[in-house]
Amino acid sequence: MMALGANADIVLVSARHQLLMFLSAWRFTVVLGVIQPAVFLLVTLGAAPTAGSAYAGRTSVAVLLTAFWSFTVWTGAGILRRERAEGTLAATLVSARDPRLVLVGKSLGASSASGVLIVVTITAVLLGLRQPVTVEHPIWFAVGLLVVLLSGTALGMLLSCLFLVTRFGAQISSALMYPVFLLGGLLIPLSTVPVPLRWLSWLVSLHWVNEFLVSSTSGDPDLAALGLTGLLTAVYAVAGAVAFDRVSDLARRRGTLELV
Description:
With 260 residues, the chain is mainly alpha-helical. It is 76% helix and 0% strand.
């Protein structure tokens, strides 16, 4: 029990540190967490002002996931890169604390902060537009939001490790942004993607969690989509663990991580 409590403390302290990083970089945070989702929502709802609550619900979910992915790519994925830039990476990886818990905590902090900020922004815009959104299954919808948080944490860990062992992290971030928007079928319907490429959407957790959240707002929750989201999140987590072992190897045994 003591070890479990100590591990939880490491995760929570790391998450708190990441939240403070968000506050220190507030301009970037405002752009991704406030301006971007607000503009997306105003544009999409403004194009169909009389479409009704169901359309507003689908659009709000799509905007939430779109903004969340942007945050994951540009913030969560850069956690370890920023550690190296600040000269604290080596101390984190070779300290007495389990560095995996530190990364989990920071990824969780990044996902939590971005998710809460985006949800608050979307809620404020909907209230400002006096646009009602009906959620027929609020408990299942809350479960879906929790899965989004966990999936973002797993993806942030995976991408953070991958981006650390390459010099082209920023370029990869840009390259990943829009293909996932398209393959996720969020604001742009998946039907617009060429047929031979649509199978790739099966590998994108945002696609399945979008299906589940939309089904929770109107109709019966798509539990199969929720299950696939959970499965992909587990795959991301395992891949992140493998990538972290690679990072640890470069740092501890080879001592070449700073040279990548």
